[in-house]
Design a protein that fits this description.
The chain is 60% helix and 0% strand. The chain has helices spanning 9-23, 26-49, 65-72, 79-82. The chain is elongated and about 45 Å long. It starts with 8 loop residues before the first helix and ends with a helix.
C-alpha cells in the first residue's frame, strides 16, 4: 500500500487483503479489515493526486497548490499521513 503504482501494486494489495479476510481465522479478520480500511485511504489519496503529497519534500518534488492545501488541513489528513508529514 505504500507504493505509488496505482494499477498493479494497489490492485494486488486489495486482492491479497480480500483473500486474507476471506480465508483467515476469525480473530485475525479484524486485523486485515483494519488494513483494508487503511489501503482504501491510501488509494483515495493516490486517485486524487496520483502520488503521496506528504513525500514531496523528501523526494524533491514540487507540491501543487491542491496538495499544499490538502497537507495544510492537518485535521482531515489520514492518521498514517499525519505521522509522516
Amino acid at each position: 500500500m505504500h507504493s505509488e503504482n496505482l494499477s498493479s501494486d494497489h490492485d494486488l494489495c486489495q486482492r491479497l487483503l480480500t483473500w486474507a479476510i476471506e480465508t483467515t481465522q476469525p480473530h485475525l479478520q479484524i486485523y486485515f479489515e483494519g488494513e483494508e480500511k487503511v489501503e482504501l485511504e491510501h488509494l483515495q489519496v493516490l486517485k486524487q493526486f496520483g502520488r503521496y503529497p506528504h513525500r514531496n519534500v523528501e523526494l524533491g518534488r514540487e507540491s501543487t497548490p491542491e496538495e499544499n492545501a490538502w497537507l495544510a488541513n492537518k485535521a482531515s489528513l489520514p492518521d498514517w499521513c499525519k505521522a509522516q508529514s
